Amino acid sequence: MHYNYKYRLNPTEALTETLLHHVDTCRQLYNHVLYKLNEEDGIPARYEVQGKLPDLKTWWDDLGDVHSKVLQMVVKRVYDNLSTLKAQKENGHAVGMLKWKPPREYRSLTYNQSGFKLKNTSGRPVLWLSKIGEISIHLHRDIPENATIKQVTVKQEPTGEWYATFGIDVDEATPEKPEKPEQVVGIDVGILKYAHDTDGYAIESPDFSEERGRLERAQRDLSRKEHGSANWEKQRRVVAEYHADLKRKRRDFLHKLSNYYATEYDLVAVEDLDAKGLVELPGNSRNRAGAAWGTFLRMLEYKCEREGTHFVAVDPKDTTKECAACGAKTDKPLWVREHSCPSCGFEADRDANSAWNILSRGLEDVGVGYSESTSSESLCDSDVRTRDLLSLTPVETALPVDTVVSAKRVVETGSPTLKERTASAVSE
Ligand SMILES: [Zn+2]
């Protein structure tokens, strides 16, 4: 399995100068390669272009300062960007559309396979980079012992901070997924709340309005300053810092939430990305919610893989309309927050009902067979069909209970407390 591990670097002033020189040389090479490709009729193979690097060095002195593998990765970067662009615009002349990189948009360099080493001399960890030197690194977590470091990317963030990202391969046996998952959960991404699951929990979206307000004020201040002035540059850093802070907090929450579901359950069912709710949101918040949901799904998927948990992304169609108890479809406008089935009488929170539908589809997708309900007390107390999934859980938990857990608690505790369900609330 492939992972990225990111660490903070603390280069001295002299090393910072060297790093910046290397990054800028790479940027110029990037623009040069692009310029040359524009002159060509067809596009030569990447290795052909890389093969010309030694010749280039004979008249371009700065190239000699940079590790040769790093230069090769610059060529690869041009080609990678080309293929991304080609995928986006199928028929256009992709090379002509690729843009030159100004310094602000080119901030990193990559060592691949060789030219780097992680050292730990006398308890002070450093990252050694060929032709640059030893940079102090903050190893806040260890790289697994059975890992192979494939490459390292060194980047200066707009805040001015330097980071090293290690691409590592870990040779690990992924745990088997249980044939008969017992702890199963369906999660609905709510519109008003962050997520709603079949165990009756609504996870509220964390409140970042303070952080967002701070960022917006800083951006307004920036727009009032003279572009390029010293004050402007100072303010630009402030904006970048606030931005990074907000992003980190959002990711942190998603990490904890996905960790919780991947470790507590044997099977997790979610809706595939075209979550219907997003369409109903106004543009801006839709983009934000959509991006967060996508990130959450990716995190959840790889964490489930790592934990040996089934991960199922199901067809989102009609999960809101369908009755989780009998399957009858009813239209519900967005403002109707309750599900009340005209056909069987089942009542639940709108999102809880969807979560049950999602779980039911997830179980079907995985092909997990469950026997018909053995319980005589069906969910709806009537003769209508009771979904198989309802027999998975004791009857008292089949009725979704709305337990709102504040996101703050999830963030602070890493969330095992989420499981503390009050039995009394359920049996009433
Ligand atoms: Zn029904």
UniProtKB/TrEMBL annotation:
The keyword Nucleotide-binding does not apply. Keywords: DNA recombination, DNA-binding, Metal-binding, Transposition, Zinc. Residues 1-38 form the Transposase putative helix-turn-helix domain. InterPro entries: Cas12f1-like_TNB, RNA-guided_DNA_endo/Transpos, Transposase, Transposase_put_HTH. Residues 293-358 form the Cas12f1-like TNB domain. In the C-terminal section; belongs to the transposase 35 family. NCBIfam families: guided_TnpB, IS200/IS605 family accessory protein TnpB-like domain. This is Transposase. It comes from Haloferax larsenii.
